[in-house]
Amino acid sequence: MAFWWPLIVLAFAYAICRFLFMLIPPNVPSIEVDASDVMDDRNQIQENSFIYIPPRGRAQQSDTKVQCYEPATMKYLGYFPALTPDEVRDRVAQARKAQKTWEKSSFKQRRQFLRILLKYIIEHQELICEISSRDTGKTMIDASLGEIMTTCEKITWLLSEGERWLKPEYRSSGRAMLHKRSRVEFHPLGVIGAIVSWNYPFHNIFNPMLAAVFSGNSIVIKVSEHASWSGCFYFRIIQSALAAVGAPENLVEIITGFGETGEALVSSVDKIIFVGSPGVGKMIMRNASETLIPVTLELGGKDSFIVCEDADVDHVAQIAVRGVLQSSGQNCAGAERFYVHKDIYSSFVSQVAKIVKSVAAGPPLAGRYDMGAICLQEHSERLQNLVNDALDKGAEIIARGSFGHIGEGAVDQFFPPTVLVNVNHSMKLMQEEAFGPIMPIMKFSTDEEAVKLANDSKYGLGCAVFSGSQRRAREISSQIRCGVVAINDFASTYMCQSLPFGGVKDSGFGRFAGVEGLRACCLVKAVAEDRFWPYIKTKIPKPIQVRIENY
Asked: Residue limits of the Aldehyde dehydrogenase domain (predicted)?
């Protein structure tokens, strides 16, 4: 792809961050975070400088250590302990004690915590992106958009609107209760638990943490075993900011481990937020039912990308390919099913093929590549199996990207962006979440057919609809069973942090972000009291009073 496009994206992201930086009051202190051990290979001790070969064909679930390595190069990064259930319960107990103090904090103190974080993020965005890139294989552009900009947007939204939505909200009392004043209060739940995925390690930690802490809770976050190295560094940023505002030391905890660690967390907290697969989400639900705690589940998706015949083909093709590249094992809401009107099908496919053939994948910090590595071990094999199943059923590959310079030990961590045509819904590729840079394109004849195809999925996270008529695009999107919609754009809804994020069906339920996500961290309490106390108050009429007998 043209080299100027990534430069424009990075320049735009940088400009937005600098603008946000100007909004930070001058009295916000800077924090120091030790990054000497994560900067680059020259600072690594000799025993950590080897190529890591993870065991194939088995999970690490029984291991006592979480091994960390760079997916793009397979260079070893170190390890972290897999915490036992007793250790998890101890961390939760410490967080619960800290929350009792923090729930009495003022919004002024909470806003100062956010401003300190925002200042650090803007001043150190390159470091944050580089660490995310090393731990997950994503490109710096993807990290800048998905880690920095989204997190900064969430912070600025909380600074401007967070207190407003957590203050008591007055409601009408109805005709029969005109003498009453009715309101809804939002109190902290206590200790929030979060089990987050690896695809955006920085934002996935900060997203639940910011909402939980600002609403007066403490939070314990289990980071993915595939992104523990970056998660534990990002924890230092949070610790330093908490210390700067005098917050309790254990208000936020980061824990590492595998399934056993996560199970112990679910059984110990007052609410659980989970980002991951439907299978694990169902296990979370079963475990949460033992203590009857509220659950928010974001379980991935199979987003539809619908292109009507009156759309700008060249423009939409660029957006479509960018959406696929973000799905190179990194994106949380990737476009995975492409439906194009029959009248522009050939021209759209031709344009997409031309773009994809110019895409190069390679180690993201080693060159100017459009796409990075796949984070999960053996995932490229699964992607190829999905492609093979489609080919066996009549699909055809019309374009594939290329590879840059890839080390011999990291070949399996890359998968070329691939465009397929002649696909249909009998293929696994059109039904199972791929989480990879594969672009299957189907044609449709009518808007009704496009809606029917989009709804033929067990997932319901998001969709994107492109048309020269916004009214037509809105009409199509309104009929699709999903929680997130972008009109003439892709994934733009998540950048609007005032909007809730979440899905339906196998994509989960509950919302984070926006008012809905913030209040989901609260005990919602309904309160009714006398409006004119003590002059007008409830009395029981004599005919229905309980008679008191003399004894």
From this structure: 61-527
Closest among 318, 225, 228, 212 to 269, alpha carbons compared: 212
Range with lowest mean pLDDT among 4-13, 74-83, 357-366, 403-412 = 4-13
pLDDT value, residue 366: 78
Print the domain residue range for 454.
303-496
Residue type, 543: P
Are residue 225 and residue 120 in the same domain, yes or no? yes
Tell whether 44 is covered by a domain.
no
Dig out the tokens for 404 from the structure: 């840059």
Q: What's the sign of the alpha-carbon dihedral 283, 286, 289, 295?
A: positive
Q: How confident is the model at residue 22 (pLDDT cuts 50, 70, 90)?
A: low
Q: Are residues 517 and 433 in the same domain?
A: no
CATH code, 219: 3.40.605.10
Tell me whether residue 531 is in a domain.
no
DSSP 163-179: HHHHS-EEE---STTTT
109 and 200, same domain (yes or no): yes
Residues 338 and 351 in one domain: yes
Task: Check whether 58 has a pLDDT greater than 60.
Answer: no
Preceding amide of 278 cis, omega within 30: no
Judge whether 159 and 111 are in contact, CB under 8 Å. Answer: yes
Specify whether 319 is located in the same domain as 241. no
Using an 8 Å Cβ cutoff, are 356 and 438 in contact? no
- Alpha-carbon torsion 305, 306, 309, 310, what sign? negative
Residue of 92, 114, 156 whose CA lies nearest to 247: 114
For 183-222, what is each residue's pLDDT tens digit? 999 999 999 999 999 999 999 999 999 999 999 999 999 9
Phi first, then psi, for residue 446 (nearest 5°) are -130, 165
Q: Which of 153, 225, 298, 433 is catalytic?
A: 298
- The position carrying tokens 């793009």 is 72
- The answer, yes or no, to whether residue 433 has pLDDT greater than 60, is yes
Catalytic residue check, 298: yes
Segment 510-539, tens digit of pLDDT: 999 999 999 999 999 999 999 988 888 888
274, 98, 296, 281: which is closest to 188 by C-alpha?
A: 98
Is residue 541 in some structural domain?
no
Neighbouring C-beta atoms of residue 345, cutoff 10 Å: 18
Residues 340 and 222 in one domain: no
Query: Quick check: 56 and 378 in contact, CB under 8 A?
Result: yes
Active-site annotation holder among 232, 332, 463, 521: 332
| CA torsion angle 378 381 383 385 (round to 10) | -140
Q: pLDDT tens for residues 482-497?
A: 999 999 998 889 899 9
Whether residue 434 sits in one domain with residue 341: yes
CATH assignment of the domain containing 382: 3.40.309.10
Structural domains of the chain, count: 2
Assigned domain for 191 exists: yes
| Dist CA 133 CA 38 (whole Å) | 12
Same domain, residue pair 349 and 461: yes
